[in-house]
Amino acid sequence: MKHTDSRVINIDKLTYAANLDALDAVRENERHYLAQADICDPVALQTLFAKYQPNAVMHLAAESHVDRSISGPADFIATNIVGTYTLLEASRHYWQTLPDSQRKAFRFHHVSTDEVYGDLLPEAPAFIETTPYAPSSPYSASKASSDHLVRAWHRTYNLPVVVTNCSNNYGPWQHQEKLIPLMISQALAGKPLPVYGNGQQQRDWLYVEDHARALHCVLTSGRVGETYNIGGSNEHANIDVVNEICVMLDELAPRTTGSYAEQIAFVTDRPGHDLRYAIDHQKITHELGWRPRESFSSGLRKTVEWALCRHEQP
Ligand SMILES: Cc1cn([C@H]2C[C@H](O)[C@@H](COP(=O)(O)OP(=O)(O)O[C@H]3O[C@H](C)C(=O)[C@H](O)[C@H]3O)O2)c(=O)[nH]c1=O
Asked: Which reaction equation describes what this protein catalyses (predicted)?
């Protein structure tokens, strides 16, 4: 696994979650631990299970960037499919050794993506948990495959799993390859802001702390064997997101002349680019009482302000 990343926590850098009360609670008070080993290494995983004796595994480790999956799909197959299989097997063998009461309480929480549902037409209803899978990219196909493996381990071996599928995350500490951090850093460096195609593709934006709360909620209260969609109720076209970033930067860190929007450059589209994703999160809201708290403009402002602090004090 060359490049481990995840949409909420970078497994190798727990700092990403350090300020998230929910995940601190998961880690420290409730004796759940996050897998930190290479998930493709069964021996490392066995050592980790023996050391921590976890009562849950929250599986966030993944190759996550669609563009990378197009230029080099092999790592996605290795990490997302074989890695998930390896982690499932390590979890199953460990789980089988637990006494009855702990076996019942154990959870394998698989964190996945709305991209498994594929491309959504402009007027189509948002994805629900039973929307048929139709992944478009090597990335989303690998995540779809991992979702199926997790459900199979539940059905065949009774491993107590829960699955969540989330929309586009954003917020502090996100990997620089993703749209929002990339646009902020390119803008501040005076470089072009590369918008793929016509920029009319729509994504639903989920603030990282909202996602972390949702994960905690599903891990602790979700029904075994169930899937929960998690979204931010914030659907926006990419070009509108980029323009909003430019407006915030014009206010908070103005250029000497003109606007950051002048740096926008429309570039060749991503192959197989999905036009729209949208999440219906009614199930988790009705069953578990979770809903997103952050509006897109407040979340984006926090993200831009955080990036500006980092830019001033590298
Ligand atoms: C990097 C970049 C992206 N884009 C477009 C492509 C997408 O339509 C949108 C967001 O792209 P990004 O690569 O940040 O995210 P997605 O491809 O939507 O996928 C992300 O959200 C889902 C849920 C995951 O599951 C993925 O793991 C996560 O990477 O902006 C551009 O126009 N220019 C750019 O330079």
From this structure: dTDP-alpha-D-glucose = dTDP-4-dehydro-6-deoxy-alpha-D-glucose + H2O
